[in-house]
Specification:
The structure is a homodimer of 198-residue chains. The first copy, chain A, is α/β, with parallel strands linked by helices and 198 residues long. Chain A contains seven helices and six strands; from the N terminus they run αααβββαβαβαβα. In chain A, the strands form two sheets. Chain A has a four-stranded parallel β-sheet with strand order 4-3-5-6. In chain A, strands 1-2 form a two-stranded antiparallel sheet.
Chain lengths: 198, 198
């Protein structure tokens, strides 16, 4: 199909996005063309603005467009408790519970020998420096329960323990509201292991 | 969750897109943040460029960034046969067959009283003017086989016939490669009605 060059370029941009195939890319490109010129310019500017302003928080590596991220600069948060997460998505998921009052440390990945991701590619060194500066009582390892997530949690906790800090891990068990019969056996085993007295 | 304003704005832009929910919007926004500054600027510029350059072809209402669309300006195409389609997506689907050698007319919608779309909202007037100028032998109504697509095809063909042009409609029948047993009864009925001698 011979079609407009700028249109093809637009489709290519969307196609490069995760989980977006050829058909969806075309649908999104058509959406952009259906915008008024003002709306399209706004979309364009928002992307540029995000690229210009958003950077990693120097404290916790969360994404922010201010000097410190909203969590780190909030004096009401407990700066003595650090929750270590894989990525900003995980951080947001925990924030959405509205329960956690400590601060974070975003690794921006997990250790994965298969994908050639080593601790140097993550913000592990920054975490150690941060804990080494003192004032931290607890580090919660909140990486996922995948093999890589486990490996990363184990690796970091080994480095942290000599610093005299309390390292904890998220609890494993049944998801709330789930049926026992549908739980996989590993989860069920972990739920039994981690049982608590009532 | 308190998060960066520019990031929220980016998510909002993606959320406004068709078929993009909150989670996907966030994933796409993270993708944009994972781009280098140069890549993000390019994405931003591509959107602006598309908004600036792409317009409707004055001949057939296809989208183009040149004076005429690639189909209309191609002298090798049969300008005496016009295929009337609902939208540019349909045009592209037909182009992808590499079989059709005529030109197009894009309606940019179908008549739909329920959605308050009347013929005046489409490029029906432009089609009539185009056919009225002469030189057109056949108009193929290639709107979809939905109720609205049918209605639009009927409506336009009634207006075209007095102009002495041959109006045809796409064939209905079984999709190629499909099993008879899974065809819906309306399609099957149409396939029987439209049977051809071998």
């Amino acid at each position: 199909m011979e079609s407009a060059v700028s249109f093809e370029k637009l489709i290519e941009q969307f196609k490069a996005m995760p989980g977006i195939g050829a058909k969806t890319a075309m649908r999104l490109a058509f959406h952009v063309l259906s915008l008024t010129k003002e709306e399209a310019y706004e979309f364009s500017d928002v992307i540029k603005e995000a690229a210009d302003k958003i950077h990693r928080c120097p404290e916790c590596a969360n994404l922010t467009d201010e000097e410190l991220c909203p969590v780190c600069k909030n004096p009401a948060r407990k700066h003595s408790v650090i929750c270590v997460v894989e990525n900003v998505e995980s951080l947001m998921a925990i924030e959405n519970t509205n329960e956690y009052k400590g601060v974070y440390h975003v690794l921006h990945g997990v250790i994965s020998p298969l994908d050639d991701v080593s601790p140097e590619d993550l913000t592990v060194k920054e975490l150690l420096t941060r804990v080494g500066e003192g004032g931290v009582q607890e580090v919660i390892m909140a990486t996922g329960s995948s093999v890589e997530g486990e490996l990363t949690a184990m690796y970091i906790s080994k480095l942290l323990k000599p610093l005299g800090v309390n390292v904890t891990r998220l609890a494993y068990g049944l998801p709330v509201g789930s049926d026992l019969q549908y739980a996989d056996s590993v989860t069920l085993m972990r739920a039994i292991e981690g049982r608590r007295s009532l």
